[in-house]
Design a protein that fits this description.
This protein is an all-alpha fold. It is built from 3 helices and no strands.
């Protein structure tokens, strides 16, 4: 019921960068990340990209 695939988790991680996820999707993603090291690394990579883009945008 709450299990999602890595592909779905990756899609949610990407969507999360653009808009807030509904609470049900947040819970499902959080549970997946607790169990999946690969997707946790992907989440970290997305966070690093977001920080890099913010730094680039604010470089003035």
């Amino acid at each position: 019921m709450f299990r999602i695939t890595c592909q779905h988790a990756s899609r949610l991680l990407s969507q999360r960068m653009e808009r807030p996820l509904p609470w049900t999707q947040r819970v499902r993603l959080r549970l997946h990340l607790l169990a999946c090291d690969a997707c946790t690394r992907v989440a970290g990579q997305f966070a690093a990209m977001r920080l890099a883009m913010q730094a680039w945008r604010n470089r003035d």
